[in-house]
Design a protein that fits this description.
This protein has 523 residues and is α/β, with parallel strands linked by helices. The protein folds into two domains: 214 residues, no CATH class; 276 residues, Rossmann fold (3-Layer(aba) Sandwich), CATH 3.40.50. It contains 15 helices and 22 strands. It has a nine-stranded mixed sheet with strand order 14-15-16-18-17-19-20-21-22, with helices on both faces. A five-stranded mixed sheet has the order 1-10-11-12-13. β10 and β11 form a beta hairpin. α9 packs across α10. 47% of the residues are buried.
Length: 523
């Protein structure tokens, strides 16, 4: 008998587990929500994904061991964006931005024990007076010694809430066996002596129970399939709440006569993004307009922080602009997004830039004027510029050097399809998740500039050398055609002999053209 093992528990009552309560005859239909911005981690076992701050909270607080797998994507409940895992319900509270309470766990323990208040384990009881137990007068229950260490070591009150029952024996609806359990406001602890010591205290499958109680057997909706835009799409980026925070300088990397170069970081959803920032030396003359610098595709192993804007950053700072070069997710010391490449790389960079725009609005750095922002991008950074131009309205002008194609299928076929084929023995990750362009043209159109050109929000300069051997010049000819056809303000420059990286001979001309464009549209 389990009873003999725990002298700190005076009375153990065998009760049937509330289990997977039968759903109400008026079971609701789950309603999908727009995805949270940030990284993404999907699980084939359940077909659902964790994104943004939900993924960050899950990973930082025990992951599968504590919460289990996600059994839904984002849902809307009572005005909140929520997500169910096997053992919990995550709630997104944007009103708590800047605190540790942006993600809170639902009070599933309380919700699933409504109606059991008269059962003996749930009635208030006096303190046991045992040094091994902790009594909480707030709820009138003792934290059982067998669960106390786990409760304290794994988040305590903030994660699990107060105990709302004594420890007692209950029959599991999962396997029909009887276990020692104790209910807390947000979960149920179970003691499994048959497991290795590290796993003997387990959490109940309250997420599954709560979902079934509310929604019955209704399958959780899949974004992009059952509702709304696909999570990776320009339409989703236009709708999602941006979550950029804590733009800050970390150290001085270089201090010259005309500018200071800083190492910086900011938050993009749950991801920490590294980068560099060039600030005019005469900071007292600020605040200054901001130009965001988007680097091109470089293999992660070869990239160093701030690469690909070594000429543009200093030049802009010398001419009275703050130039910010985000490294983007997975690069340099930025956090990793597990699905960055399978999600086509550039859309993640676009999200990081949208969140940088949000962080600019919130920064206390006195030399930044977040109302005057321009964007420069090279190659894949130019692709980010194309995507940004149809997903936001704050950026006042774009200057793109040798941008990639306005039809994303072109970019995939030229570069990523080759990388996918060489890296995987079987069907590629992209093939399994999205299909190739010939399989799923709608997905590729959803992340393409071409069908969205009529949404362009600001003037754009495209500068593409006709001798580019990396990124076809014809792609920018097509982008220019689309912009002209849509009646947009576009300037198209096409130096005849320039390659993908502008030569030192042409660079001064390109720099002056770039600066004049920002002077006309951003300052």
């Amino acid at each position: 008998m389990i009873v003999g093992l725990f002298t700190v528990i005076s009375v153990l009552t065998l009760l049937p587990l509330a289990g997977f309560a039968a759903p109400s005859s008026q079971a609701k239909q789950p309603q999908g929500a727009i995805r949270l911005t940030g990284g993404e981690q999907c699980f084939a076992e359940t077909g659902h994904c964790l994104r943004g701050v939900f993924r960050g909270y899950w990973a930082a607080n025990g992951g599968i061991t504590r919460f289990g797998l996600p059994i839904t994507d984002e849902l809307t409940e009572g005005g909140l964006t929520v997500l169910y895992t096997e053992r919990a319900r995550f709630e997104f509270h944007p009103e708590n931005r800047g605190t540790d309470n942006v993600v809170l766990l639902g009070l599933l323990g309380k919700e699933l024990t409504v109606g059991r208040e008269k059962e003996k384990p749930f009635q208030r009881t006096p303190a046991q007076g045992n040094i091994a137990t902790v009594y909480f007068d707030q709820t009138g229950h003792n934290l059982a010694a067998i669960f106390g260490s786990y409760w304290q070591a794994n988040g305590g009150l903030a994660v699990y809430g107060y105990p709302i029952s004594e420890a007692f024996e209950e029959k599991s609806a999962t396997d029909g066996k009887t276990y020692l359990v104790q209910y807390f406001e947000r979960n149920r602890f179970e003691y499994h002596p048959e497991l290795p010591a590290a796993y003997q205290v387990s959490l109940g499958l309250l997420g599954k129970q709560a979902y079934q109680k509310l929604y019955g057997n209704a399958p959780a909706p899949i974004p992009g399939k059952d509702y709304g835009p696909a999570p990776i799409s320009l339409a989703a980026f236009r709708q999602e709440m941006r979550w950029g925070n804590n733009l800050r300088t970390l150290s001085v990397l270089e201090q010259g006569g005309s500018y200071t170069k800083y190492s910086i970081a900011y938050s993009s959803g749950e991801l920490n993004i590294s980068g560099v920032m060039y600030v005019p030396a005469a900071q007292g003359d600020g605040p200054f307009p901001v130009i965001i610098l988007g680097h091109g595709y470089i293999p992660i192993a070869e990239y160093y922080t701030g690469e690909d804007s070594r000429r543009e950053g200093p030049y802009l700072a010398q001419n009275g602009c703050v130039a910010i070069h985000p490294d983007f997710r997975n690069y340099a010391t930025s956090d990793d997004d597990p699905n960055a490449e399978v999600n086509m790389t550039a859309p993640g960079w676009t999200e990081d830039t949208l969140n940088l725009l949000d962080a600019l609005k919130r920064t206390a750095l006195p030399y930044i004027d977040a109302t005057r922002v321009g964007y420069w991008g090279h190659s894949n950074g130019g692709q980010v510029g194309l995507q940004l131009s149809v997903t936001q309205s704050e950026i006042k002008a774009f200057v793109l050097f040798a941008p990639t194609s306005p039809n994303y299928a072109d970019n995939f076929n030229r570069w990523q399809r080759v990388r996918e084929g060489s890296a995987n023995g079987g069907p590629s990750l992209v093939k399994r998740k999205y299909g190739y362009p010939e399989d799923n043209p709608a997905f590729y159109a959803g992340i393409s500039f071409a069908p969205n050109a009529g949404r362009v929000s600001a003037p754009m300069m495209i500068n593409h050398g006709q001798s580019d051997t990396n990124t076809p010049y014809a792609w920018s000819v097509e982008s220019n055609r689309l912009l002209v056809a849509a009646g947009k303000d576009v300037t198209f420059l096409s130096p005849r002999s320039e390659n993908h990286l502008f030569s030192d001979n042409y660079w001064p001309t390109a720099a002056k053209q770039m600066l004049a464009y920002y002077e006309a549209h951003v300052r």
